[in-house]
User: Fold this.
Amino acid sequence: MSIATIPLAPASSMPEVSTLRLYMMRALYLLMFVGQGAIQFPVLLNRGAGVTFWHGVGAAMLGAMALLAALGIRYPLQMLPLLFFELAWKLVWVLAILLPKWHAGQMDPATLESAPSILMGAIIPLFIPWRYVVANYVTKPGDRWKGTSPSVPDYHLIADKHLRKP
Assistant:
């Protein structure tokens, strides 16, 4: 059996994601790529001139996320973990930074300036195909922890065999 013919999962177990949802996800990845890229790439391309350490760390992480979002335009379902990360960091920021500052009446100008764009993360759950997520990240068995399954070939061994010259 060739690698190309090995079924990864039965077709009936995968929930269908509508074309409209895929295009919505692609639009979100495009927004992430262009929006974050326009903000972070100039900071990164200036080679950190005049940037504090933590601002540089944030710019590098968000710039990397913007680059990875470009992959999401082509592979929206495979890049779902990027949307999870985007949603998670924004939720953590709101719960750990924004709400305590707001509750204490200590909203500084930087927080006030950042809050609207970070709160836009509230739209992310609208784009995520939740039935697909449940089927593939919750109910689907996880990858094995050790050993190899006799029914699943070791792809690296197959590739090594084909790459070796006789």
Remarks:
- The radius of gyration is 21 Å.
- Residues 1 and 153 are 10 Å apart (CA to CA).
- The mean pLDDT is 85.
- The chain has one domain: 18-140.
